[in-house]
Amino acid sequence: RGAPGIRFYAGAKLIRGSGDVLGTICVLDSQARGLSPEQERGLRTLSHQVVARAELTRMLVARQVEADRLREALNRSETLEGIINQSGFIAIRRSMASGWPVEFVSDNISEFGLHPHDLIGRPLEDSDFIHPEDRTRIISERIEFESGTASALTQRYRLVVPGRPLRWIDDVTRIVRPCHGGAPRAAKRPP
Question: Which residues partner with 13 through β-bridges?
Fold first, then answer.
């Protein structure tokens, strides 16, 4: 078959904010005609609306992909937290900021008579839970560790919790460097 008998064509480019051209939106007719200035403005407005809708759809898809990725990360995190909480180890993550304040504590810290909120936001060495005779030593060991090149710090100290027997803690701290940039963190593992 031959041409469909198109006698009229009017189009407007679909241009993203970045300048990329997505295509065109057009009007076809089998009869020759022209567009009034108002119709031309309408076609341009329609092209902008189509681009806006395409951008919105792209952003919604990107947000859904990100939401799925975050949901999967949360599932992995909850799984790992469950494993830690059922193990014989307490996981503590500390910031490398001054004093190494605690950012995360696994829930099984309750085995020591403590709750995560007892430690979050505080330097561990400043807590009342470290035996006073051990505080100065573990702070100086941490300072020495910060200035050295070792990748792990092992410390032994006494944990004091009112109403609980004194407990000796073997604490292993490793520097964790995020694979996607960001500040390193001190990951502690006191059993």
Answer: 24
**DSSP codes of every residue in 15-57:** E-TTS-EEEEEEEEESS-----HHHHHHHHHHHHHHHHHHHHH
CA distance 106 to 187: 12
By three-state DSSP, how is residue 132 classified?
A: helix
Three-class secondary structure of residue 152 per DSSP: strand
Q: How confident is the model at residue 184 (pLDDT cuts 50, 70, 90)?
A: low
pLDDT, tens digit, for every residue of 100-138?
A: 888 888 888 888 888 888 889 888 767 788 899 998 898
Tokens representing residue 38 in the block: 């108002």
Q: What secondary structure letter does DSSP report for 124? A: G
